[in-house]
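Morning. Coffee machine broken again, so started the prediction first thing and wrote up yesterday's gels while waiting. Chain of 377 residues, entered below exactly as on the submission form.
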Amino acid sequence: MFNVNKKRIIREFIELVKINSETKREATIARVLKNKFQALGCHVIEDDSQSKTGHGAGNLICTLAGTLTNIDPVYFIAHMDTVMPGSGVKPRINNGYISSDGTTVLGADDKVGIVAMLEAIKALKEHQIAHGYIQFIITVGEESGLVGSKALDPSYLKASFGYALDSSGTVGDIVIAAPAHARILASISGKPAHLGISSQERVSATTIATQAISNMRLGRIDDETSASISSFEGGSNSVYDCVEILAEARSLEQEKLDVQLHNMRIAFMSAAHQLGGNADVTIELMYPSFSYQQNDPVVHIAQAAARSIGRKSRLLKSESGSDANIMSSYDIPTVNLAVGYEHIHTTRERIAMSELVKVAELVTAIINQVAQYEKAL
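Came back before lunch.
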């Protein structure tokens, strides 16, 4: 068991959730975090991603020098932004939980992860726990589509593998796979009945779009793949005849995702061709997938660390993405760890104080396990 300071953890968490940090408004929280990590002896860089993302700050790359040599460097990642409404958070403690007053989100997503990082550094120093080189990365704009991690220059990354601290579930659970996600924008135009065109010759964009969608496989395609229509906007009259459809598809397997995207594109194009309209289809990959196995070091170490703090680990597959998806695409094996928050993205968001403490224990234990794992090789 690793000694962390429960009162200090709760105090720091309450301090951080009170700082307004809605996505795109990260300037204040970034400044506070930069000072905190520097005060703990980290070398802190704020990157230039702000010019690319338009968010309130850049990503923070905080590096803690190792006390051991010949140990593979490890990293942890969390995000500083929250969803709305996240301004003016008033935390409450009741029956072992911390929540907001019900008018805002709490911001446990993902200030739990940041507090765990800070407390782990303090525990390493106070208990003189030997460790290798560690990077703590705190991104902006995770809630705006992972824009911070997407804009991160991979040359800053020195770690061999790492852990995102950003999944719901009981501390100890490990997300070892998450899907790729693609967005499809289809602009469908028909042929309006005006300027001499008879109503018999009119082609409705709505009809084209409806036929296209009816010809698609949507919902759960298989155990690893899903697709849906997100929005359907526009319509037809005698002058305006255009429909815009936003759709999405996800899969743990890129090949399956590619097939689903191709089929959805063909459905739009074919319906437009058959009915005499036009379809302009754009596909954008929002983030790639990742998948690891139990015997991969990044998973093995996390499980050993969880056992060392008295927790079991379930190896899970997620249906959504996180910064772990982006970091894995940089060829740095990354899994997403459960940090215990509940009801995120709602005003009912909360975190059990016991789980808040366990996240800090887990991060400290992982750092220790990295050193033990390397010595055993």
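The domain at 6-178+289-376 is CATH 3.40.630.10 (Aminopeptidase). Going to sketch it on the whiteboard this afternoon.
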